[in-house]
Design goal:
Length: 176
């Protein structure tokens, strides 16, 4: 039988190969459930600059080709863009996608048995393409329902420069 290497299955950069191998190795570590890893009051946050290329990758992935999101042009790259809010804006639910990169503490072993079961998003202001934001997730509750364990988080997305609150979200994770 021929040994199949992960990097032979699809085109991968050296960084992607290293990240995949690190992730697989981390699965050998002692793992906890998300319920055991998170305490009420825990806060995790991350800053993110929302560049035109981040928006392009997201919009392409979800096939949302609205010209309001276009803060770039071929051979020019960054332009102000146009929307009813002035310049180009971030697709409204794109930030919800990035919450997972904040919600899980990458310094701990991978949490086993987690399922995102609920979220309620409140969009307060359009986010301009090019903004730098802070995404913060705070564990606010742990509860049981029908014999299952859940962790609830409150999430905020704010502008790092001027403090504008762009988005609030509640989300629950079911933990085995």
């Amino acid at each position: 039988m021929t040994d199949i290497r992960t990097d032979a299955l699809r085109p991968m950069t050296p960084l992607q190969i290293r990240q995949e191998r690190d992730f697989i190795e981390s699965l050998k570590e002692e793992c906890q459930t998300y319920w055991d890893m998170v305490q009420v009051g825990d806060v995790l946050s991350r800053d993110l600059t929302i560049t035109p290329d981040v928006v392009i990758h997201f919009a392409d992935a979800v096939e949302d080709f609205n010209p309001w999101y276009e803060g770039w042009r071929m051979n020019t790259w960054r332009i102000p863009g146009e929307s009813p809010f002035g310049g180009a804006i971030v697709p409204p639910l794109m930030m919800s996608h990035f919450v997972l990169s904040v919600q899980f503490d990458h310094t701990k072993p991978f949490a086993i048995g987690s399922i995102h079961t609920f979220h309620d998003t409140e969009l307060l202001e359009p986010i301009p393409v090019g903004a730098s934001v802070t995404i913060a997730a705070r564990a606010v509750d742990k509860y049981e329902k029908r014999g299952r364990r859940y962790v609830r988080h409150e999430v905020t997305v704010t502008d790092t420069a001027n403090g504008t609150l762009y988005m609030r979200e509640l989300r629950d994770i079911l933990s085995l």
